Amino acid sequence: MAQSVGPRLYSCCNCRNHVGLHDDIISKAFQGRTGRAFLFSHAMNVVVGAKEDRHLLTGLHTVADIACADCNEPLGWKYERAYETSQKYKEGKFIFEKAKIVKEEDW
After folding, report:
1. Model confidence over 1-21: pLDDT tens digits?
2. What are the structural domain ranges in the chain?
3. Which element (helix H / strand E) includes 93?
4. What is the three-state SS of 4-56?
5. Which parts of the sequence belong to the Yippee domain (predicted)?
6. What average pLDDT does this structure show over 41-59?
7. CA gap 99, 49 in Å, rounded
8. How far apart are CA 95 and CA 5, in angstroms?
9. CATH fold label, 9-103
10. How many CA atoms lie within 13 A of 37 on its CB side?
11. Which strand (E) or helix (H) includes residue 68?
12. Residue 107, pLDDT above cutoff 80
């Protein structure tokens, strides 16, 4: 049986638009609005909304919601700024809600 040679992709749960690469996952131990969430270093085919300050579990952050560029399904958010020094590593990174993305193919 042949193995897939392409990148391992995550897609929008609604329209299957590719939104992230498995290799870009930094952590699977995050909490989103709907439960478990993944922290990604990069995202693709998403639109970034307006920035807003939000009090999250780890303190105050400036975030922008992200949605699928094809169907506008809300997928998570982008960390624009972290006010706590210990949280600065999140800046520029993306949270994808696990319930909003699906693995592509059988990997």
Report:
1. 455 567 899 999 999 999 999
2. 9-103
3. none
4. CCCCCEEEECCCCCEEEEHHHEEEEEEEECCEEEEEECCCCCEEEEEEEEEEE
5. 8-105
6. 96
7. 20
8. 26
9. 2.170.150
10. 18
11. strand 59-68
12. no
